[in-house]
Structures are given as C-alpha cells and as structure tokens.
C-alpha cells in the first residue's frame, strides 16, 4: 500500500473516530417523538376505534383536541399512537396523497403543548368540543374542530375554499369570506 492510500485510510479512521455516535433510532425521521407524551392539536376521528386515515374521515370515534397521546412507532408513511386516557392504540393509514410522511404527519397532528382554546370565541369552543362546524367560525377554529383538509383537494390553507372528506364517498366544501370566516358549506 502506498503512502497516498495510507494517508486516506488514516483520514477516514480519524473522521470515524471523531464523529459523534448516531444510533439507529436517531437515523429514522420522527423517532424523537417516540415515547413522548404529546397533545392532539386537532380533533381526529378513528375507524372502529383502531385506525385513522390521512383524510381524517369524520366517522366513528373522535379523539379530542388536547388529548394526551404517546407515539409508539413511526414507520415510513405510517404512525401508531396510543390515547393515554382511553388506552386506544390507533394506526394511521397514510398514503402519498396526504403529501406527508408519517413523521411529518405526527409533527403536525401532535404537539408538546395543549392548544390554547381561549383564543376562540365561546361558540367556536363549543363547536370544537363537539367536533362540529358552525357558520362564522374562523379558519383556525375549523382546523381545530375538523382537522386539516386533505392536501390533494385543498392544496393551500390560504385559499377560501376547503374540501373535507366525510367518508370515502361524501365530501363537503367549506367557503370562507375575505376575513377567513366560514360563510357556507356545500354537501
């Protein structure tokens, strides 16, 4: 082996020895969330209490905003989490239409602090608590009550028309005025 090869090998060895150790857990995106107690940032619906889908179909059981959750696993597009109060273990069925991988979905859906509901009007808080939508709600209140609209039908939250899937077949379109208040809903 010539001096040049020896120098390169010595440099590689020095770099490897000086680099901080990175565990396999740290390599996977979103793993910093695993095991943490976080808070649901919007109302979220489950299907048969066992899974949710990226489109957040509004059927079955609602996991309320500010519910304590623990992320159990993030694997590519999918996320498994437990609702602390009920012990429900829920799997996210995600796909590329969501525009988010599992880690990005979890980071948007769960946060380290509870959502401050005091910023909403009394009527908005009542609707959010019940998972309902009322005319006059702000865009932020609609997100808190119904979750984020699916990106493939509502690419920009700055737009004044948002679409939500109620289930696989039914969709509602929400229309907002220039001030961001909900003015009509079309089934």
Defining key terms:
globular; six-stranded mixed sheet; Beta-lactamase Inhibitory Protein, Chain:B, domain 1; 187 residues; three-stranded antiparallel sheet; 2 domains; SH3 type barrels; alpha+beta
Radius of gyration, in angstroms, nearest whole number: 22 Å
The CATH architecture of the largest domain can be given as Roll
The number of strands is: 11
Classify the fold: give the CATH topology of the largest domain.
SH3 type barrels
CATH class descriptor of the largest domain: Mainly Beta
Cα(first) to Cα(last) distance is 75 Å
Write the element-wise H/E pattern from the N-terminal end onward: HHEEEEEEEHEHHEEE
> Fraction of residues in helices?
10-25%
Structural overview:
- By secondary structure, the chain is of the alpha+beta class.
- It has 2 domains: 26-111, SH3 type barrels; 130-186, Beta-lactamase Inhibitory Protein, Chain:B, domain 1, CATH 3.30.1450.
- It contains 5 helices and 11 strands.
- The strands form 3 sheets. The protein has a 6-stranded mixed beta sheet with strand order 3-7-6-5-1-8. Strands 9-10-11 form a 3-stranded antiparallel beta sheet, covered by helices on one side.
- Helix 4 runs parallel beside helix 5 (139-146).
- The longest helix is centred in the first third of the chain and has 16 residues, at 3-18.
- It starts with a helix and ends with a strand.
């Amino acid at each position: 082996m010539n001096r040049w090869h020896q120098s390169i090998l010595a440099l590689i060895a020095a770099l490897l020895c000086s680099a901080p150790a990175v565990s396999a857990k740290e390599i996977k995106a979103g793993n910093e969330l695993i095991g943490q107690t976080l808070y649901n940032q919007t109302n979220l619906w489950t299907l048969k209490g066992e899974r949710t889908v990226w489109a957040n179909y509004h059927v079955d059981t609602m996991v309320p905003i500010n519910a304590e959750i623990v992320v159990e696993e993030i694997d590519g597009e999918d996320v498994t989490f437990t609702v602390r109060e009920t012990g429900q273990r829920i799997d996210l069925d995600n796909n590329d239409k969501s525009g988010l991988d599992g880690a990005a979905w979890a980071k948007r859906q769960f946060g380290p602090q509870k959502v401050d509901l005091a910023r909403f009007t009394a009527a908005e808080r009542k609707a959010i608590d019940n998972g309902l939508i009322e005319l006059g709600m702000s865009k932020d209140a609609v997100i808190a009550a119904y979750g984020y609209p699916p990106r493939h039908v509502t690419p920009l939250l700055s737009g004044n028309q948002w679409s939500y899937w109620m289930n696989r077949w039914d969709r509602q379109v929400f229309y907002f005025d220039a001030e961001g208040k909900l003015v009509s809903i079309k089934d």
